[in-house]
Amino acid sequence: MALVLFTSLAVAQTAQPKHEPDVPYLPTTEEAVKSMLKLADVKSSDIVYDLGCGDGRIVIAAAKEYGAHGVGIDINPVRIADAKENAKKAVVENLVRFEENDLFDADIHEATVVTLFLLNRLQESSIFRGGV
């Protein structure tokens, strides 16, 4: 247990996102996760992508509750480390993977379900980075 805490702490102190995230990290509620997966009608044959996955709870729930495969994308390496640890604890690491990447650059071509949980407003530096 101390080794895990030390490892997570070391990652948190040294790993930095490529740029500031466009939205702050706010964990999705359990109720919202269940509702999103139910609305998407997730099945074991699905590949669920969560863009801005944070601690991985959506893809982990898809794997645990439905037997689906999942991929979580997050720009923050600390969140990716948390998500991997959470998948291990949930014993679904064989069904999910997590990728440190900007959601706007991620290759999601194999997804059958895509989730994205955002606030009602992005920071000014977000989608319109290209000057649109």
Structure in words:
By secondary structure, this protein is an alpha/beta fold. It contains 4 helices and 4 strands, in the order H-H-E-H-E-H-E-E. The chain has a 4-stranded parallel sheet, with helices on one face. Strand 2, helix 4 and strand 3 form a beta-alpha-beta unit. Helix 2 crosses helix 3. The longest helix has 13 residues. The chain is globular, with a radius of gyration of 15 Å. The N terminus and C terminus are likely disordered.
Task: List its traits.
single chain; 132 residues; alpha/beta; 4 helices; 4 strands; disordered C terminus
Helix-strand sequence: HHEHEHEE
Bulk shape: globular
Q: Give the termini separation.
A: 48 Å
Helical/strand content category: alpha/beta
**What's the tally of helices?**
4
| Largest sheet report | 4 strands, parallel
Regions with pLDDT < 50 over 5+ consecutive residues? 1-13, 125-132
Mean pLDDT across the residues is 83
**DSSP E strands, number:** 4
SS strand fraction:
5-15%
How helix-rich are the residues, as a percent range? 25-40%
Strand order of the largest sheet: 3-2-1-4
What is the C-alpha radius of gyration, as a whole number of Å?
A: 15 Å
